[in-house]
Write a sequence for this structure.
């Protein structure tokens, strides 16, 4: 069940170029959030933005009942969001979408593959997998050194490989240049569509899940603004990213 509530900003900092980390206190409801789900945030004042902004959940702190979100300032909406200060409140819908079904699969070693702002939701996923006794290895990709974040956090979960497009930090190239050198049972990936397509193609013989980044309308599955075609030729159907996703089995949808 999706809830609407006012969440208080209890921490905020810049962790990389144009990249903001916020912690929001929201009460016991945060304990129900599953890895891969997101929040839909109303930003701006007096209707300056008609649509809410979907933001991935990077971490959950059950002791103080807070969530951590990470977003990149790339437009007027996220520009307004980053202007909020500690102590202010945000109008939030949560938990939105369907997460990674880690309770339904048998995995011994997981590979996390993230790109840019698709990296954050994989951190909470990795924490929960490790809590369940799963070995975790991560490949996280960024444009350049100044964009890198959460390397230490992922390294605490297991081996972590950082890749930058320009080679200014870590491996030079793309995440797909690294992943085929690694052994794992399942992969879990989140990032830009082009990256997800490349990862899915590279790992077509492996079991896995992808999480799609997408601008949304309502965020609750009512408006059909964020649909993606399925790979089921017989049904020729569509899935709603905000409700059926953003997490899908690899090759379940056409990206």
């Amino acid at each position: 069940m999706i809830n609407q509530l006012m969440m208080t900003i209890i921490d905020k900092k810049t962790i990389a170029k144009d990249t903001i980390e916020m912690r929001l206190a929201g009460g016991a409801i945060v304990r129900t959030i599953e890895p891969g789900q997101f929040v839909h945030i109303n930003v701006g004042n007096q209707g300056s933005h008609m649509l809410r902004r979907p933001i991935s959940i990077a971490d959950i702190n059950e002791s103080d009942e807070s969530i951590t979100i990470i977003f990149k300032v790339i437009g007027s909406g996220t520009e307004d969001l980053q202007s909020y200060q500690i102590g202010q409140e945000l109008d939030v819908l949560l938990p939105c979408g369907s997460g990674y079904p880690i309770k339904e699969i048998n995995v011994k070693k997981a590979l996390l593959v993230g790109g840019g702002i698709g990296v954050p939701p994989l951190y909470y996923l990795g924490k929960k997998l490790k809590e369940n006794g799963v070995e975790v290895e991560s490949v996280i990709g960024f444009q350049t050194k100044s964009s890198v974040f959460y390397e230490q956090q992922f390294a605490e979960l297991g081996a972590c490989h950082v890749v930058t497009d320009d080679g200014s930090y870590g491996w030079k190239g793309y995440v797909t240049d690294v992943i085929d050198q690694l052994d794992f049972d399942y992969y879990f990936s989140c990032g830009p569509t082009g990256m997800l397509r490349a990862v899915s193609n590279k790992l077509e013989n492996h079991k896995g899940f992808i999480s799609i980044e997408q601008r949304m309308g309502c965020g609750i599955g009512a408006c059909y603004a964020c649909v993606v075609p399925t790979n089921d030729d017989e049904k020729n159907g569509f899935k709603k990213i905000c409700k059926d996703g953003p997490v899908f089995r690899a090759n379940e949808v056409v990206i």
